[in-house]
């Protein structure tokens, strides 16, 4: 019977403190210089390369109605800015897009929850919902025009039909991927019924949901541009899609480029300003983001 | 036939009472009996380990006691809703360590202004003072299990069910957590029902070891462990009793290879 003289309980505390220190690694945020070199410099270089290639290609094509010079596109931007119309174009489209997206959020979220949690609803509309994702939302423009006429509600309808399936499906796959262990742990803590959905299921499904939101925004923006191009009508106010369509009818290639670049930049900007930070925050706080 | 909670005005002399509990599942080969006629009383403040090889239905039994599933026949009565700790820490990664504990307090109805202090107190009890704001992924395996223990303790249940909670930890960490669990058990006066397949762990921790046979799970034998705490897993009396129990356990397992 070998018994040791040290008191195990006191011992445990100090051993534990040592283990904790050994097994915890400090993580810090990257420095400003690192961010500059790793995140900002590469895209800047890529844009510079594209501009250089464009400048070199311009004299080769030598046809401004097919390929305008970078300078011509620049002056198209400048002109629109000086006339005070540039922000107007952007705002018309962005406000439509974001408002439509907000509606899609309000409809898609409860719909996704219903499909995820109610077996009958899932069997009934689950396949249709994921099938709708692969239907290009441009297809909805003609019926929407017939049903609703040439007005803003037509635009919102097209955005909804494009974005709601993505948002709902994102939430469904998020809920499906919630580890059963979390649900069991939640139930033993007393999180059942609505409490279980609010405290366990929804937060656990957040990564899938945010991925769905991101895709939902991309679909909203695309649907809106399609609607604006096809259904341009002066009374609707000139958004970016109409700008593109107007440029085409005027055979103004510099303006066409201007419109395309604006559509691209706005799409990227919304993603960079809203959805990517949201996604990063969700993943980082759960330790799901691997630093490269 | 049911899992029931003892009524509040009833004075109970047990933390959990299992009477003739059986459980069968419908599988591909028809009805399959997993647990057969299990009767166990866990006294208030008692530390009981359930020991058994694979297929003895240990985890099924804990699920029944936790109220996550219902027995096919027999009855289970517990003094209040038991707390449950899993082999995986099961902490919610969208919450910090402290908020995990606070959620347990919230679901129990503790008013908001009290939660923060109570959570700090529990973290201190598992020697993780200052870890309130830590994310789950920032903690080591041992630290996570301690936070999970603090979260289970936050339920202020009289009965703590533990489903192989240290099985996934390295030997050094496990050893330290045994000391911690013994200390916390002594400090809080909790009843513990601890499931494991590790004989030494069972003897190291418990006042009573119950050996389950496999397929179906039946109570094979019981041992009182009257070795004084604090024990260490390498103490001679612990090793001696472990050897004896292991022999019986091996005999139980051997029966399955004979037909």
UniProtKB/TrEMBL annotation, chain A:
Keywords: Cell membrane, Membrane, Transmembrane, Transmembrane helix, Transport
Any Pfam family matching the protein: BPD_transp_1
Coiled-coil parts of chain: none
Superkingdom, taxonomy of origin: Bacteria
InterPro entries hit by this protein: MetI-like, MetI-like_sf
Transmembrane regions: 40-61, 97-116, 128-148, 154-175, 256-276
The UniProt record lists the keyword Signal: no
Keyword Transmembrane helix tagged: yes
Principal location: membrane
Subcellular location: Cell membrane
Membrane topology designation: Multi-pass membrane protein
ABC transmembrane type-1 domain segment(s): 90-274
Family: Belongs to the binding-protein-dependent transport system permease family.
Entry protein name: ABC transporter permease
Organism of this sequence: Streptomyces bangladeshensis
Top-level taxonomy: Bacteria, Bacillati, Actinomycetota, Actinomycetes, Kitasatosporales
Automatic annotation (TrEMBL), chain B:
Keyword Transport: yes
Keyword check for 4Fe-4S: no
Residue stretches spanning the membrane: none
Keywords of the record: ATP-binding, Nucleotide-binding, Transport
Molecular-function GO term, any one: ATP binding
Residues annotated as domain ABC transporter: 16-239
InterPro entries in the record: AAA+_ATPase, ABC_transporter-like_ATP-bd, ABC_transporter-like_CS, ABC_transporter_ATP-bind, P-loop_NTPase
PANTHER family hit by this protein: ALIPHATIC SULFONATES IMPORT ATP-BINDING PROTEIN SSUB, TAURINE IMPORT ATP-BINDING PROTEIN-RELATED
Protein name (database record): ABC transporter ATP-binding protein
Species in which this protein is naturally found: Streptomyces bangladeshensis
């Amino acid at each position: 019977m070998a018994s040791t003289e040290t008191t195990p309980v006191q011992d445990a505390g100090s051993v534990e403190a040592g283990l904790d220190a050994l097994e915890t690694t400090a993580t810090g945020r990257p420095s400003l210089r690192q961010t500059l070199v790793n995140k900002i410099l590469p895209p800047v270089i890529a844009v510079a390369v594209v501009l250089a290639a464009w400048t070199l290609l311009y004299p080769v094509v030598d046809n401004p109605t097919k390929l305008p010079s970078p300078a011509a596109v620049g002056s198209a931007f400048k002109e629109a800015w000086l006339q005070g119309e540039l922000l107007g174009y952007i705002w018309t489209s962005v406000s439509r897009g974001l408002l439509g997206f907000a509606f899609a959020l309000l409809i898609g979220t409860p719909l996704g929850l219903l499909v995820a949690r109610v077996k009958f609803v899932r069997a009934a509309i689950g396949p249709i919902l994921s099938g709708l994702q692969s239907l290009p939302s441009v297809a909805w423009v003609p019926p929407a025009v017939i049903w609703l006429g040439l007005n803003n509600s037509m635009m919102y309808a097209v955005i909804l039909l494009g974005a709601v399936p993505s948002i709902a499906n994102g939430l469904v796959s998020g809920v499906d991927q919630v580890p059963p262990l979390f649900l069991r742990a939640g139930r033993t803590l007393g999180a059942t019924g609505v409490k279980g959905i609010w405290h366990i299921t929804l937060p656990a499904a957040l990564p899938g949901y945010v991925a769905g939101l991101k895709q939902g925004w991309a679909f909203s923006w695309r649907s809106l541009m399609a609607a604006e191009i096809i259904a341009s009508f002066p009374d609707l106010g000139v958004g970016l899609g109409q700008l593109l369509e107007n440029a085409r009818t005027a055979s103004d290639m510099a303006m066409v480029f201007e419109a395309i670049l604006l559509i691209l930049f706005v799409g990227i900007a919304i993603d960079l300003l809203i959805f990517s930070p949201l996604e990063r925050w969700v993943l980082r706080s759960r330790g799901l983001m691997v630093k490269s | 036939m049911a899992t029931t909670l003892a009524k509040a005005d009833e004075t109970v002399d047990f933390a959990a009472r299992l009477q003739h509990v059986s459980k069968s599942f419908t599988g591909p080969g028809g009805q399959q009996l997993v647990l057969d006629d299990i009767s166990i009383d866990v006294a208030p403040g008692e530390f009981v380990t359930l020991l058994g090889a694979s297929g003895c239905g240990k985890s099924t039994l804990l699920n029944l006691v936790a109220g996550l599933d219902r027995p096919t026949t027999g009855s289970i009565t517990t003094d209040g809703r038991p707390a449950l700790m899993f082999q995986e820490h099961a902490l919610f990664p969208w919450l910090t360590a402290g908020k995990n504990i606070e959620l347990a307090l919230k679901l129990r109805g503790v008013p908001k202004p009290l939660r923060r202090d109570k959570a700090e107190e529990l973290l201190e009890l598992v020697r993780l003072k200052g870890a309130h704001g830590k994310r789950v992924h920032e903690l080591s395996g041992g630290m996570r299990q301690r936070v999970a223990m603090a979260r289970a303790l936050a339920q202020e249940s009289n009965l703590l069910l533990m489903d192989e909670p240290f099985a996934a930890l390295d030997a050094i960490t496990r050893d330290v957590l045994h000391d911690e669990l013994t200390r916390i058990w002594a400090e809080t006066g909790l009843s513990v029902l601890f499931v494991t397949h590790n004989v030494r762990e069972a003897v190291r921790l418990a006042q009573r070891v119950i050996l389950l046979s496999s397929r179906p799970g039946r109570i094979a034998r019981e041992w009182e462990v009257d070795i004084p705490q604090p024990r260490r897993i390498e103490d001679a009396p612990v090793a001696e009793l472990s050897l004896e129990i292991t022999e019986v356990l091996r005999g139980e397992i051997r029966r399955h290879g004979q037909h």
